[in-house]
């Protein structure tokens, strides 16, 4: 099996590692605008060879793992090059625009829009991990528009990688993911910005910041090159979530100003329900 990875970062690299483990004899080719990423991926045995777009006619599977703004031009180009039996998988964090862009493409049936809910704050080939997707949810959009045999091929791969599948239309995906992912990243970036601006002494931050701060700002280490385009593509949904978040922050500030600490306690107690939801997610992942 010939697998081409376009974008040799965390998601693409991790998929390459696990596919090679599960499908012996697979050859993985890499396409990346960063030549250092190509060299690093070969040295780490994430890929075996460098490739270019004209090589895609030899691909059995193409996994596109690049910033979502670049995907809008790259994925149609990929679909132009592939053979009839090739499966093209997109793993970006937004789905509505890319599904709309390629809806009339002659090779639309070869394309599967997915979003694996997995990752870390790190990027580049060195961030690639074995078993990154085990127990994680993979959202698939517009599955009915992909050729059935290619659906089966994709689902077999996802199953071997340990993913749980959920189906969703692109518009709903982008709306929901704005709440549970995109807002978290904005919060982390802005908390980091606030602390850096007010705590001028970096040593104070290092010495005094506890694990709660570190875990909250972990996402602020994420790649701006990846996240700025996500916020742009999902702008309307992100603005809606931010408006609601800002309202809640303002309400909390008002309670503090008015010394309504019993109300603050009630707010936190009600929100503690999130523990049960997240514990339920962990239990599912461990099964």
UniProtKB/TrEMBL annotation:
Signal peptide: none annotated. PROSITE patterns: PDH_ADH (PS51176). GO terms for molecular function: prephenate dehydrogenase (NAD+) activity. It comes from the Bacteria. InterPro entries: 6-PGluconate_DH-like_C_sf, NAD(P)-bd_dom_sf, PDH_C, PDH_N, Preph/Arog_dehydrog, Prephen_DH. Keywords: Oxidoreductase. Its EC number is 1.3.1.12. Pfam families: PDH_C, PDH_N. SUPFAM superfamilies: 6-phosphogluconate dehydrogenase C-terminal domain-like, NAD(P)-binding Rossmann-fold domains. Residues 1-286 form the Prephenate/arogenate dehydrogenase domain. PANTHER family: PREPHENATE DEHYDROGENASE, PREPHENATE DEHYDROGENASE [NADP(+)]. This is Prephenate dehydrogenase.
